[in-house]
Amino acid sequence: MGLSLTKAAQWTTAGKLEFTPMNESLLKELLSFVEDFSSRHPQEAEHVFEEPLRWSTTLGASDFKTDYYISGIDVQSHEKDSGGQPLLQLSPPTVCVRSFSQLSKLVHLAADKKLEELRACLEENKDAMVKILGPCFADILEKEDTHTDVLHLVDKDQGKDPEFKINLFHLLQNMNKQLLSKLLEEIEVELNLTALKNDIESLKRLCSEGEKRLLKSVRYTSDFEFSNGCRAPLWRQVYGDICYLVVEPCDTENLYITCSTAGFFLNGGIKQEGAESGYERTSDTYKDLLTLLKSRSPYFAEHINKQASAVQELPSTQSVHRHVESVDMEEQGELQRSYEQQEKNVQDKSRKQHLLNKKKYEPCPRWKKLGLMSPCGKAEERKSRNSSGMEMSSEIRKKKQGSGAKSKMKAEFSLSSLPGRLSSSQKIKTPARATELSSESSSQSEEEEEQSERRLESNTDLPPEYWQIQKLVKYLKGGDQTATVLTLCAMLDFNLMQETCQLAIRDVGGLEVLINLLDTDEVKCKIGSLKILRKISHNVQIRQTIVDMGGLQSIVKILDSPVKDLKALAAETIASVARFRRARRTVRLYGGIKKLVNLLHCVTNLASLTANQQKDVEVARCGALALWSCSKCTKNKEAIRKAGGIPLLGRLLKSPHENMLVPVVGTLQECASQESYRIAIQTEGMVKDLVKNLNSDNEELQMHCANAIFKCAEDEQTRDLVRKYKGLQPLVSLLAKVNNKQLLAAATGAIWKCSISVDNVAERFQEYKVLESLVELLTDQPEDVLVNVVGALGEFAQIPASKTIIRQCGGIKPLVNLLSGTNPELLVNVTKTVGACATDQDNMAIIDQLDGVRLVWSLLKNPSADVQSSAAWALCPCIENAKDSGEMVRSLVGGLELIVNLLKSTNDEVLASVCAAIAKIAKDKENLAVLTDHGVVPLLAKLTNTTDDKLRQHLAEAIGHCCMWGSNRASFGEAGAVAPLVRYLKSKDATVHQSTAMALYQLSKDPSNCITMHEKGVVKPLIHIMGSNDKTLQEAAAGCVRNIRLLAVANRKAILFY
Amino acid sequence: MSDMSSLNRKLIQTLAETISKQVDHFNKTEVECLIREFNVLLGECAASGRAVNGLDKEKFRSILHNNFGMTDDMIMDLAPLLVDPTVFRTFDRDNDSFVSLKEWIEGLSVFLRGTMDEKIKYCFQVYDLNSDNYISREEMFHLLKNSLIRQPTEEDPDEGIKDLVEITLKRMDHDHDGRLSFSDFEKAVKEENLLLEAFGTCLPDIMSTEAFEQHVFQEQLVL
């Protein structure tokens, strides 16, 4: 306790404790410790201090009661030590206490004066620890080394009750820790205060810019600032209030804001210092001032963004990132992601700031001001350093949220000593470049986020490696070629895959030196530097820093070197750096893709290679690795193709070496998301090699091959090629690798796509008993596997025999279970497969029994249009094949209303599917009545103007079936559905003709519709259709014409007779 | 004159025949070219009016300088008396202060086309200043003496070099006897090729090698 007090408490020059809130809380904490000590730890409390604690007390003899001998003004305790000395002795005004039990009794006696007593005690016994435990122990406590040999000390000490002493020691140690952590909390509030002040200052600056001003004024309600930095009245500080602001925005009325430790909110209108009322909260609480202002003043919100991006000066760092964000939003359409992006950028920024700040390891100046540092021992210094690290970063974050950070950051930017590289790293941040970001890859999942700063020094002491590396970097800076190479070799001896080493190199400025070496002419230096870079760039932060410093450009340049080792190393380094898109873009912009593609030239399939050729192969391998990393973004895929990379990759695909094949196939499968690559893979005969490598022993290679086939087998010819080269069997055997989920996902994906060709299913898959294995994979698999498995089952189920097998293997139940999932991709496939299975009567019985129809139906509510349409399609066979389907549909409460409402969708596919389902539902008269009540007729009529043939077909079908109720025929006529339907007959699609003819036949049973049809010239095309080979079509067309004719005849008769 | 030259040619061819059997990396024609190049260089020496038993130190140094760009750092400028003679000494096997024709071709064989093993051996010889088959601390210190910029602030300007020597020794001295034996050196270099020229450049880089070969083998063949 003495320790934390001497170090942490704020002392006045006269050796008194200041009356600050921090000291108060410290004292209180100590007091409760002392008070409870004798009851909690009775034995330890008996331990006699090495030396008495002595201070002048305000207590007199009258304050002491039993347990004490009182003689006049002097007091002695009954309790005595072994030498007969009393443990408490009072001879006013001095009191001597020699054990914790006496100390805590005294504190109890002092009653309401106890705080003063303790204060006096501490003020006069600054070395309390030494007095209590003796100098040896106190030393250890100072060092904070928990496990030093206390026992050993005790032996030396020859104390009477060593065990208690050790316990006491540990108790004090814990207390000490608690105090310090408590202290930190206190300090955090203070730091936030400073950040807040900065925010407010920068807001004030925003008021003074004439035309450009964002706010009219910002002022405190009170000019008086308490010593703790708050401006709120004391009685409000109790509630956590810090200060009150009056902000006058340009567009709305004044905002009265309370800044409190809980956040920022509007109050009831505190205008002046000392107001009696208005302290209540009248708005939501916001995390920072800026957000509050933005939400209240649209003008401010709009302009703060503009201004910040245009001038890049004031006040929020956030706004700079807005650009990146908005691009992302367009490209992703996902608000969620853009939010993350923002977060990320903010952190990124703070990282950068740190980067510029590195080299400083002194604690934050604020700590110095607090006086924490002054009498510290080494240990304490380290501790405060650690926590200042934490504080600093939290402070930085706080500032980001607020506004004041920018100007300060600016200053630090310009102070920084990064030579020349900075400008380029800043350039990358500008909005113009940000649009570049939109070339995003298909493989989002592998996309790595730029990560937030993790600081080496924040959680641990600096490791010994740090100092060694710092020394080496010094030699790197001052050495000639020979010394540099030696130093690089020494550095290579560190475990460079270890984060501490990686960050140490960065933090002591080693990265700059390493990157600068890349621009020299010294081959050996470059080799050494790259050997280090390729390893440390496995660290996310390091690779970001390398890109920030412009190191990637230098590495790309080295790809032109005539030295093969160097080229290979450079490519390998690129492979490990280009794992995030900014890096990939940099590689492309500096012409790296073309250079990398050029590395791929080599002889691969000779039996024996010369040393030189082997080097070429190695260079090509590294080139492929780098291209693999780069190929995760669309523009790079395109660049690789343009640079002629595809045939070269195709040649390397024939290599016998796995370590070559993995990156090559990896690149190919990554690029196969592009149409051009899929065609090339097919036409350049790569399918054969891909199939061949499916049989490899290397699971990674198998996975990439399967993935490549997965992506390419969208194309029918490729599917046939896979069969031709006997690729189906190895794919099926991969299904056994249930433990490698990635491989399983790839294999099932490939099987899915291959099964789209009926030939594949009928000729091959059936004989390999694939269905059985697939059904087994329906449970306990990750979603990406499930999507593919279910997709494949859906394709298999197009063949009637498969449907029976699926049922026999017990596949229906897990399929229906999957209907309650959430993954849209999966749901699309599941509904499709369930729909396909439902075309079999026996399957349908099981689905019905498992309540599958209700589950499919409820998916109509899914927000994804794909799921909606897929579910509606699946409903058609369900309704068709269910026993007593009319009753089943009716039993779904609200189901019919739901499906009618989907006719308001804007997605043609959804509309078509829903029309198809309605056509099926409407076959049941009762249900048709309900559909009519829900207004299906006008909704259908409204859709008739579509030009989409698929929709036309199902729409006409639905209209045809909906005619069968009440006055629906006439209603369709009134809603203007007839004329557009007539136009459908001009469509080239025969299926449209068929359903349209049926619909027209039904509609023609209403006389006024006949007139409309006739007017629109329906007869001629109908007569044409009558000549069709399709019997139902003939009948419908003829029936329609007959109805029209009958009407005409009736009309003539009427005229004749009346 | 033509007699002379044809006689000369005959002589050179015979000589080349013999030497090419003794040297690993050159064929007969290449040896012929090297002999011619040697004669040209020797001719330059002779022109300056001195006795010509071979290439002397001065000439040898300028050849290294002009043909292999080995000019930078201490090899040429800062410690001319130290390393330069050591490369020279490695070439000059019989220690007669001249590089004879045979020594010239044997030396270049390693210099231009040596295998890793040959190069390791060669470099070790260069660094082993007193030819006692060990590279000692002192030798390393000597070799690295000028390789660090001295910090004016440091009390002992050689502090860094000493430290570097210790780091390197720790790295390479596998048998922990405080000096590098050939096997120490060989093992370390095989582990990390960068350590081949650990104590100073003593081999030409790939560019100047190619340029030299181009110059000697191709241009002369045209003649």
From TrEMBL, chain B:
Example of a GO MF term: calcium ion binding
Pfam families documented for this protein: EF-hand_7
Keywords noted in UniProt: Metal-binding, Repeat
InterPro entries linked: EF_Hand_1_Ca_BS, EF_hand_dom, Recoverin
Keyword Metal-binding belongs to the record: yes
Spans traversing the lipid bilayer: none
Domain EF-hand: from-to ranges: 87-114, 115-150, 160-195
PROSITE patterns: EF_HAND_1 (PS00018), EF_HAND_2 (PS50222)
PANTHER family the UniProt entry points to: CALAXIN (PTHR23055:SF60), CALCIUM BINDING PROTEINS (PTHR23055)
Entry protein name: EF-hand calcium-binding domain-containing protein 1
